Amino acid sequence: QDDDKWDFVLVSGIHEAGSEKEIKRKKFLDELSKKGFAIKKIEDKKLFYGVRAPKQIFRKYQQLLRNPDSGQQNPDAHRDIPVTTRIRIVNFILQNTVTPDLEKLHDLMKKKVFEAMFPLHEKEEVREFLEEKWARWRDIFCQQPIEKIRCYFGEKVALYFAWLGWYTYLLGIAAVVGLVIFVAGITVFSSSQVSKEICEASDTIMCPLCDQQCPFWRLSDTCTYAKVTHMIDNEGTVLFAMFMAIWATVFLELWKRQRATVVTNWDLYGWDEDEEELAMELINNLQHEPRKYQHSYFRSTIVLLLVLVMIAVLIGIAHALVIYRVIAMALFTQSNFRFLREQANTMAVMTGAVLHYITIVIMTKVNRHVALYLCDLEKPRTFSQRENNFTVKIFTFQFFTNFSSLIYIAFFLGRINGHPGNYVRIAGKWRLEECHPSGCITDLFIQMGIIMLLKQTISSVMEYLVPWIAHKLRKKRQHPKKRRMMLGEEEEAEDPCKRQWLSNYQLNEVNIFSLFNEFLEMVIQYSFTTIFVAAFPLAPLLAFCNNLFEIRLDAIKMMRLCRRMVPRKANDIGIWLQVLEAIGILAVIGNGLVIAITSNFIPVQVYKYTYSPCMTENSTGVDCLTGYINHSLSVFRIQDFEPDTKPGPAPMRLCRRYRDYRNADDYGYTVQFWHIFAARLAFLILFEHVALCIKLIAAWYVPDVPQSVKNEFLDRKHSNLRKELRWVMPQEV
């Protein structure tokens, strides 16, 4: 039965006899033969070599690690180890077999001696079950068979799907709360006193939004924009931001419990990765000496400096996007189309968001190459250490790529642009953008909405379509030959392995980053869902809908469109957990800043409890926010405009208004400005301390490891000690 099963297939081009590539290939295969590997050759348009490891290799593994897979084994005579472990060991030996020329398989693949290596998708019961019950769109709301995924793809992939399923499940709760807050915002769409005042302010003439071409405008022209702003920026948003900070903590604490339960069932809770790697090194080569731990402060300093340079480049790209928006705004206001002139600001924001998405797509590829180069500089000791280093770097780069533009809109837009008569200009020519009188939060909402929708639709469609088209094209190249054979040469017996090896070869290639890419995509999405959620309450809903499809998309890709991944053993999701915890803390800081700085929540509250008619006149029949808009606008004398930027004739010789708290005589900040500034700061400190305290209490309240798991370990230790005692003192028992 074992004779027709092959652990791995190596694919090579048909090289000329006696050529350098052919000699190198022969040397490598000879080394495998010396280790007792069985090798089978099949010739088609390429050369296929099936390799099967000898049984003693797996016996050594079982002996060295006292068979940690005992829970997964069938109690048959040979006590076979699971297929996933078998593939992992064979992959390790193939990767670490050295030819007499001191070349490994990695070097030979670079030199095109071998073109591909992959384990086979076998026609086994587990695979049929997964194809039928997991990798189908119709199972979109069904629970995932994590145990079966583990038996076929190994622990690392199973833990990814367990984590993604758990994240999606808890996102459902956040999505419902976010939707309720958003719907509540829509119901008060027209009832806000602030938006009513803006809609009725037809006699409030505002300063032009750009130089020369732009006219003075009435505040009431932006009535709809003000209503939309209030729909997002209300008291419910503050509560939702607090809720999401707690949700992020509870999600991670519950995941730690879930993970502890899962890996205990797999008998991997105390599994040691170093021991496993050393055991495989010794099985491969008995003379192997382990690589020692090393640390170089010089290397670390160089890497740190290069990381800072890269971050500076990414922030520079965000500045370029700002400049684009400023210039686009100036061009749109001078356009011949009336619609573009009127909606210049919104159009600049929307096209800026699309451009931001394009930079994300391009920089993702650049970031990967830079992060890999930096990892090579560090010379990590093991593969998992290299993976951890790479993860931290690529996440840092991706974070700045995705969020630097959003950080500008949230915290700098409209705050660094000066005031009429003394604007801050790019290259002394273009004015920086201003916020709308009702706040900047709508700009942040538009930017996040566009990026999340584009990321989730275009990226997901590409993620599925590219492998699907590539697979179809590869299949098409093989088909004509097969048809001729069926017509003319039916009597020729075909090797049963040939069809299986060919069909596996036609599938898309997978590499060590295949699963990493999925994790990175989800963690960036998690950042979007938590960090600026105060400005975009629909983020959890979009993420939830996306993930329902993402789970099945990944499943279909792995089962039908890609070659089988080399299974990896793991007992947690690795350094991603620390990354997620860091995002949880950033979410508290980010949402606190959005409410304190971006949103109008604090200025409105300060006005309500200090300057409103309710406080000054003791009038009960009046809405406490009456007069807020007039209070938040400053006065500007037309004669104080810069000489070369004077706008067209004013409708009246009255003073013009702009959004700020400044004096009418010297344009210095008013007392109200400093009052609001102090209130913003106080709120920020209070919000962050309360949210972080609640996070700590939630982390303490939900234990990382369930009691049932602890009790299971206690019983196991107890029974083991009793067995030892019986062995030592049989007469006393």
TrEMBL record:
Membrane topology (UniProt): Multi-pass membrane protein
Residue ranges occupied by any Anoctamin dimerisation domain in the UniProt entry: 83-146
InterPro entries: Anoct_dimer (IPR032394), Anoctamin (IPR007632), Anoctamin_TM (IPR049452)
Keyword Transmembrane helix on entry: yes
Family of this protein: Belongs to the anoctamin family.
Protein keywords: Cell membrane, Glycoprotein, Membrane, Transmembrane, Transmembrane helix
Organism: Anhinga rufa (African darter)
Origin organism lineage: Eukaryota, Metazoa, Chordata, Craniata, Vertebrata
Anoctamin transmembrane domain location: 149-712
GO cellular component, one term: plasma membrane
Membrane-spanning ranges: 157-186, 237-255, 301-327, 347-364, 390-413, 523-549, 573-597
Intracellular or extracellular location(s): Cell membrane; Membrane
Any one GO MF annotation of this record: chloride channel activity
Pfam assignment, any one: Anoctamin
Protein name: Anoctamin
Main location: membrane
